[in-house]
Design goal:
The chain has helices spanning 3-23, 52-56, 75-87; strands at 34-40, 45-48, 92-99, 105-116, 122-133. The chain has 137 residues and is of the alpha+beta class. The protein is elongated, with a radius of gyration of 21 Å. It starts with a helix and ends with a strand.
């Protein structure tokens, strides 16, 4: 096959792939599973986005009142998270292990921002979490 024929064939294939991609519906497995959350200065959940049920199988209503350092998180991840929050370097991004409904570890990427009062004193943290690797992968 000549270079010109090969180039034409490749262009044809890529055009076909672009057409398929343009009309392909997004399925739930294509969606990035992520949720928002907020905790007070002690690390107690104030709120969690309802999307957490799709990511971890746990209802958002079960989080408020629990500690971000003990609820559905591995001990090692909790320690790492606590140390980074205390460092005061925001925003921060880290990978941790949350536990899903079956208590299987799920790799999560967290993005964390500090909440400050009008006077600048810390009042807690908020952020979002995204599944990086589901359990068993």
């Amino acid at each position: 096959m000549s270079k010109k024929q090969l180039a034409n064939r490749l262009n044809s294939l890529f055009n076909h792939l672009e057409e398929i991609e343009a009309v392909a519906p997004i399925t739930s497995s294509d969606n990035l599973q992520s949720w928002s959350w907020e905790v007070d200065e002690s690390g107690i959940y104030r709120s969690v986005g309802t999307e957490v049920i799709d990511a971890l199988g746990i209802s958002a209503e079960s989080f408020p009142g629990h500690s971000i350092f003990t609820y559905k998180i591995t001990p090692q991840s909790a320690s790492e998270l606590r140390n980074l929050l205390q460092s005061g370097q925001f925003p921060l991004e880290l990978d941790i292990y949350h536990l899903n409904l079956e208590n299987e570890p799920v790799t999560i990427r967290m993005m964390v921002f500090q909440i400050s009062s009008e006077s600048g004193s810390p009042e807690g943290w908020r952020g979002f979490s995204q599944v990086v690797m589901p359990p068993g992968q």
